Recover the amino acids of this structure.
């Protein structure tokens, strides 16, 4: 009678027995910007979806919402076994305003966040970037996802439009392409290494 | 009531946790790795969901993966996993404190690994 659960985790879905540590990054961005595509490109497993219930009571800025309500937020995620003992998890984090409260909890312990932007809707990213800076202290790198009809702006123009700090990395990416997606993660981790909070050795 | 985003489960979720919304330990994160302790099989009184959970964890998985496979919210699975750890049926695989950030040595290993992909 255990066939149901055996079917759900086909062999190979478990991490290798040598993996003894997990590290996460949050893939942040507005709706439809390609978060799940990026996760799917690099993940060694088919991206999975979990649901989390959050109370929107403390938000109070959605005029359509009653005072207290719970809503379900879906998070897509994937994983990469980067060394024989470390698994890197990528959690796609919704950018909509009513989910911002969720971020501080999720950001706890994260190495950083690739923030995905779409130059066709750059204005969607302003609030997401502001809130990320306001609510978390995690390193982030801006990832300009190239859609086929994206206008070809020079990155420095996008940087100026988003009012990024000079040290914040900004890279172009095709979220569908594995190598391109991996490069964004490399950029992010290199940036994280410059943060004092990650300087100590804890092996 | 906002029905658009509301999805019920066949079993009212918090029945599975005897009505508790918070786990008995606060070190569990979605990325925390857990694994079944094979020498501690479940008692015959264990619920079907507990059985499924422990069965899933016969290899190492992150809490979020367990939740995804069981199709239950992460916060709820955290309560169940926490109880199963307390009872000795599951163990945390990650050899670090959940609140400790990875150090430079870990980030270097991650970078090396990513560059080889």
């Amino acid at each position: 009678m255990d066939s149901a659960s055996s079917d759900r985790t086909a062999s190979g879905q478990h991490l290798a027995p040598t993996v003894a540590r997990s590290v996460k990054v949050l893939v942040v961005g507005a709706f439809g910007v390609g978060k799940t595509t990026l996760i799917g490109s690099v993940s060694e497993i088919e991206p999975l979806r979990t649901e989390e219930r959050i109370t929107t009571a403390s938000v109070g800025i959605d005029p359509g919402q009653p005072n207290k309500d719970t809503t379900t937020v879906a998070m897509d995620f994937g994983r990469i076994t980067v060394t024989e003992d470390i698994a890197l998890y990528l959690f796609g984090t919704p950018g909509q305003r009513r989910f911002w409260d969720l971020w501080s909890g999720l950001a706890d312990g994260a190495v950083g966040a690739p923030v995905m932007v779409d130059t066709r809707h750059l204005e969607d990213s302003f609030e997401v970037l502001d809130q990320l800076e306001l609510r978390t202290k995690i390193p982030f790198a801006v990832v300009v996802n190239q859609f086929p009809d994206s206008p070809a702006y020079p990155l420095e123009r996008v940087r100026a439009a988003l009012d990024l700090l000079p040290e914040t990395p900004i890279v172009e990416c095709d979220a569908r392409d594995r190598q391109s997606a991996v490069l964004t993660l490399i950029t992010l981790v290199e940036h994280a290494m410059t943060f004092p909070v990650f300087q100590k050795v804890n092996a | 009531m906002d029905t658009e985003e509301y999805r019920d489960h066949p079993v009212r979720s918090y029945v599975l946790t005897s009505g508790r919304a918070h786990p008995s330990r606060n070190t569990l994160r979605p990325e925390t790795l857990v694994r079944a302790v094979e020498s501690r099989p479940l008692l015959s009184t264990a619920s079907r969901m507990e059985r499924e959970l422990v069965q899933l964890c016969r290899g190492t998985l992150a809490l979020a993966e367990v939740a995804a496979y069981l199709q239950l919210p992460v916060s709820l699975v955290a309560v169940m996993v926490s109880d199963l750890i307390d009872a000795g049926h599951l163990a945390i695989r990650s050899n670090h404190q959940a609140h400790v950030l990875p150090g430079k040595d870990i980030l270097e290993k991650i970078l090396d690994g990513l560059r080889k992909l």
Strands of chain B lie at 33-36, 61-62, 90-92.
